[in-house]
Amino acid sequence: MEGRQIHAVLAFVVICCVSFQIRASDPIFYESFDESFEGRWIASEKDDYKGLWEHSKSEGHDDYGLLVSEPARKYAIVKELDEAVSLKDGTIVLQYEVRLQNGLECGGAYLKYLRPLDAGWKPTEFDNNAPYSIMFGPDKCGSTNKVHFILQHKNPKTGKYVEHHLKYPPSVPSDKLSHVYTAILKPDNEVRILIDGEEKKKANSLSDEDFEPPLIPAETIPDPNDKKPEDWDEREKIPDPDAVKPDDWDEDAPMEIEDEEAVKPDGWLDDEPEEIDDPEASKPEDWDDEEDGEWEAPKIDNPKCEIGPGCGEWKRPMKRNPAYKGKWHAPLIDNPAYKGIWKPQQIPNPEYFELDRPDFEPIAAIGIEIWTMQNGILFDNILIASDEKVAESYRDTTWKLKFEVEKEKQKAEEAASSLSDGLSGLQKAVFDTLYKIGDLPFLSAYKTKIYDLIGKGEQQPNLTIGILVSIVVVFLTVFFKILFRGKKPAVNVTEPKNEVAAETPDNQGSSAEQEDEKEDENEAAAAAPRRRPRRDT
């Protein structure tokens, strides 16, 4: 009988432990956005917040999220928690995903973990003044590029809530991939910021080196009522009252004087002006002296001055005046009345308090209140947990797979872009070579056709190989005709006039009209313009 009771007690203990373990491994709050947010999240009804939220898939995935759908808008939406989450006991992990599908040039993508409604706010009136305990997430605009972590903490002496900003926060990833942001608050006041599971910042919430202003105020402050005495002398050095200006000190002597030793160079053109009227300029035909005034030719540099050492009136160059000393000042000496830089006296800080652990207000709701110039911001998998392993598990199952797919796609796109750039450079080199081939004298009869082919190839780069083969065929055809017949082809091939006279007797019987016609055709072909379409370089 006793054995059965012991077994029953052990079984009960095991069940309790397992239940506790299961309960501990569950998140406190989780929002996957697998279902529509409407009816569960409340969009602000304030006039300033006109941005339209959408339930949308992440690009390239079947996973849904909460989407910022319009650029240059203010957005505000809030979700009340079933139960407020205490920040005073144990570990708290805040985590969510955000994907900047169109990048982020100017805007925010952070969350606000809001205090209870009795702090004086309404979900339908949610705005930037709503009281929060923690603000966490990316923000980028101009010189600002940071992952915010801001604590609002109540000063027990004054009752005022003060914002405390994390110093030197991590920067925002600059790509368009999904990223997961994690903030871990430990019972020993440690704060850790993770991006994609990697620790980027570690701080202590009570350290004045980690937060600005520090949560615990300075113990003393400068007395605001203290004033510097009228006879307080802060001058460390003063002019020597006994010093006298030397008799030979000339304050009126100029800094520079003419160099009397300078001599005008030989060949200096005194009578030549430095500029002359442009001899090639002429008055425009539509110039009206009555309306436009008397026309004057534009000036150009006198070419004679470039040949000689110089033009115009010669003047001696200036040099530094050895007698120049400038305005006299008495030398400085130590001030016998010097008392140092005055500072007000320190007094006890009436706002000072001591604290072993921050007294944060609980989290009763999660809000997104942002202004952004970019759309395409997608929020997903918002999590609050009391165990780091729970957050890690969700990262592995919800974020990591998506990120790896996006990363591989990005690598493929970059590789394709690099290959395309390489082909573009190769194609340009090929076309430049083809143009040079088209300029060869013995292909003059085919120049126009060759240029037409090259032009089509430049406009349609996918035809490059075909164009290249066509031109090679033309080249080889002409080459072999010349090689095996010992003369240039008679069809459409033009030759210089002196070569025509040296042809075979068959050609010597040509009439003068035929000679003139051939010469005209030859000149026309040789002068054919290079019809090369404009290309991007």
What do you see in this structure?
This protein is α+β, with helices and mostly antiparallel strands. It contains 9 helices and 25 strands. Strands 2, 5, 7, 8, 9, 10, 11, 15 and 24 form a 9-stranded antiparallel β-sheet that branches. Strands 1, 3, 4, 6, 12, 13, 14 and 25 form an 8-stranded antiparallel β-sheet that branches. A two-stranded antiparallel sheet has the order 16-23. A hairpin with a 2-residue loop joins strand 9 (132-141) and strand 10 (144-154). The chain is flat, with a radius of gyration of 43 Å. The N and C termini lie far apart (94 Å). Mean pLDDT is 84; it is low at 6-24 and 486-537.
DSSP helix count? 9
Q: From the helix content, strand content and strand pairing, which structural class follows?
A: alpha+beta
**Amino-to-carboxy terminus distance:** 94 Å
Helix content: 25-40%
**Strand percent estimate:** 25-35%
Rounded Rg: 43 Å
| E-strand count | 25
Compute the average pLDDT.
Answer: 84
Described by strand count, sense and barrel closure, the largest sheet is: 9 strands, antiparallel
Shape category = flat
Segments where pLDDT lies below 50 for 5+ residues? 6-24, 486-537
